[in-house]
Amino acid sequence: MSEDRTVPRTLDWGVGRYESTAERMLPAARVVVERASLQGGEHVLDLGCGTGNAALLAAACGAHVIGVDPASRPLDVARAQAASHGADITLLAGDAASIPVGDASVDVMLSVFAVIFAPDAVAAAAEMSRVLKPRGRIILSAWVPQGTLSEFTTAAGEAVRQAVGAPPPPRPFAWHDRDALSALLAPYDFTVEVEQHSLSFVDTSPSAYLDGESREHPMAVAGLAVLERLGRAEALRVRLLQILEAGNEDPASFQITSRYVVATAQRATG
């Protein structure tokens, strides 16, 4: 029984089919890459590259691109994507606390809804600073923790936490907040600007969206696997469907809109 009640401390982003989620995120990846104003020949690192959205867009701009991700399956998908596009992208296993590239080797750091999941924001900031060149820049996207999608993911995470009797998690770092991000990066001489954006998620119905997330999104797949073993999955599905129905913006089908920010951090000195 104790085996059934355990849950991994870190999420395996290789479960499910993250490429389906990545397809929904592609508009945000385009915004991040556009804001980076990449120049041909720049060395770009996509931190938490997943299946390669931003890395592929950066390579199309003529940049020398490295993608880094801790999960092997998304990296395999990214390699296949790069091959099909004829893109020369180096893809490496690694995470925000240990980026597998040399000091001062990167002109631009991109991270599309990825570094925001780093367990230790301070360690991630130190690593990003280490690998960036003296006048390097960071462009990242982060969710604003409000709205239907935020309520949806919070409810799912809380259900798993309660089911396994885990303590409340530490409060996550506010990657979306300009002041918090400025304070985090201030020791490394970055100035930070933040702009607001939104991303819509659509499907044929709230239940269709829930079914897709349950099959494909790594967080949902991992969490529901735990709850299924404990006989609590159906109760969560009912609650999540209620949240989606209440937040649905299109009664004829399904749409929810989530706000996010794109933050640009520019190192001020060289």
Describe the protein's architecture and organization:
With 270 residues, the chain is of the alpha/beta class. The protein has one domain: Rossmann fold (3-Layer(aba) Sandwich). 43% of the residues lie in helices and 23% in strands. The chain has helices at residues 18-36, 53-60, 72-85, 121-131, 148-164, 178-185, 206-216, 218-230, 233-247, and strands at 43-47, 64-69, 89-93, 106-112, 132-143, 190-203, 254-267. Strands 3-2-1-4-5-7-6 form a seven-stranded mixed sheet, sandwiched between helices. Helix 3 links the parallel strand 2 (64-69) and strand 3 (89-93). The radius of gyration is 19 Å and the shape is globular. The model is unreliable at 1-9 (pLDDT under 50).
CATH homology superfamily? Vaccinia Virus protein VP39
**Structural class given helices, strands, pairing?**
alpha/beta
Specify the CATH architecture.
3-Layer(aba) Sandwich
Q: Taking all residues together, what is the mean pLDDT?
A: 90
Q: How many distinct beta strands?
A: 7
Largest sheet: 7 strands, mixed
Q: What's the gyration radius in Å?
A: 19 Å
What overall form do the CA principal axes indicate? Answer: globular
Count of the separate structural domains? 1
CATH-derived topology: Rossmann fold
The total of helices stands at 9
**In which order are the strands of the major sheet placed?**
3-2-1-4-5-7-6
User: Any low-confidence stretches, pLDDT <50, length ≥5?
Assistant: 1-9
Strand content: 15-25%
* End-to-end CA span: 57 Å
For the record, the CATH class is Alpha Beta
Percent of residues in helices comes to: 40-55%
**Order of SSEs:** HEHEHEEHEHHEHHHE
